[in-house]
Amino acid sequence: MKKRNSVSLLQELSLLNGAPGFEKPVAEKIVESIGSLGTIKRDRMGGVMVEKIGSKSGPRVLLAAHMDEVALMVKGITESGFVKFVPLGGWWAHVLPSHRVNILSPKGIIPGVIGAMPPHHLSPADREKIMATKSMVIDIGALSRNEAEMMGVEAGLPIIPAVEWVQMANPDVVSGKAFDDRVGVAMMIEIMQRIGKHPNTIIGAGTTQEEVGTRGARTMATLANPDLAIILEGPPTDDLPGCAEFVQGALGKGPQIRAYDPTMVTNPGLFNLIKNVAKTKKIPHQVAIRESGGTDASVIHVHSLGVPSVVIGVPVRYAHSHIGMISLTDFEASVNLVCETIMKLDSKTFQNML
């Protein structure tokens, strides 16, 4: 598939709405894109997988990407018509005020703005504080609770950042919402479409509710029953000034291969195989040792008798905020790395990892 089509796919996936528990639009896009390549199966959490058998039935290689994005949910409405909310996923409260959001109502999209107190009404001490999420409200222009309800607001509705897709002055860099983890979903679709004859069975899967506890990964592991898993992610970059002692996830430096996070130690055999593939094929890459965070790999790698797993990701600047940035070159390199790795994963190679 041409790079320009990859960009179109990334844009479409980024702009889809998929709060945790509300991933159906993304699942439908996966089926539309790769459903004809193999057998479609679904779990009862909303996850979807497509199984593509190669020259051998095993090993079963799972390519997993979570479909949800960090979002919010309507908690209630004040008497004055402001909307209270709870976070779905890990937000830093500092990034929320003044941003536009869309409340997804059965009556249609209800635009709103997360209120920000003007500095005129803040004491010098309060200006230095971060407002707690529970103290924030969304202003939808309603002047009463009844008016807000008439617009279609009710408890339990998902709320999504209202963000445009923008190609930056550097044409290799694009910005948009939900790159964690629509960039992983795009990778999975591209890999499934590009891969030709392969010595295994590959399973392209979209999982649910990763941002609220890797819940859909548990059900997907049961459905897919993989021998090995490659988790496709949009990990946060650490290339901002003062962010990290060692930069292990910079924009434009290639895919990030995770060796460790607090939820999983990557299988050494799989880790070394991927590094060797990257070096042999001259694919730029970065190795990450993460001291916080986790992914769907946390539950997939301990499924059944164990599933050797690795996380490969396209670094995302400003992850878990309204707007992220990625490098298209990083995306292309990540897809190539996984495709080349899959071609090496025959039964003998898999057995040597164990």
How is this fold's topology laid out?
Elements (H helix, E strand, L loop, with lengths): L2 H13 L8 H11 L4 E4 L5 E6 L6 E7 L4 E7 L5 E6 L11 E6 L2 E7 L9 H4 L10 E2 L5 H7 L6 E4 L4 E2 L5 E4 L2 H16 L6 E7 L7 H10 L3 E6 L22 E6 L2 E2 L2 H13 L5 E4 L7 H4 L8 E5 L10 E4 H15 L4 H7 L1
Parallel strand pairs: 3-12, 3-13, 13-17, 14-16
Antiparallel strand pairs: 1-2, 2-12, 4-5, 4-9, 6-7, 6-9, 7-8, 10-11, 11-18, 14-15, 14-17
Helix pairs in contact: 1-5, 5-9, 7-9
Key features of this structure:
354 residues, alpha+beta, Aminopeptidase, Elongation Factor Tu (Ef-tu), domain 3, 2 domains, nine-stranded mixed beta sheet, six-stranded antiparallel beta sheet, 18 strands, globular
Q: What proportion of the residues is helical, as a percent range?
A: 25-40%
| CATH overall fold name of the largest domain | Aminopeptidase
Task: Give the CATH H-level superfamily of the largest domain.
Answer: Zn peptidases
- Taken in chain order, the helices and strands follow as HHEEEEEEEHEHEEEHEHEEEHEHEEHH
How much of the sequence is in beta strands? Answer: 25-35%
* Total DSSP helices: 10
Alpha-carbon distance between the two ends: 34 Å
Overall pLDDT metric: 95
Computed over alpha carbons, the radius of gyration is 21 Å
Count of DSSP E strands?
Answer: 18
The CATH architecture of the largest domain is: 3-Layer(aba) Sandwich
The CATH C-level name of the largest domain is: Alpha Beta
Estimate the global geometry from the Cα principal axes: globular
Question: How would a crystallographer describe the biggest sheet?
Answer: 9 strands, mixed
pLDDT < 50 runs, ≥5 residues: none
Counting structural domains, the number is: 2
Multimerization state: single chain
Given helix and strand content, the structural type is: alpha+beta
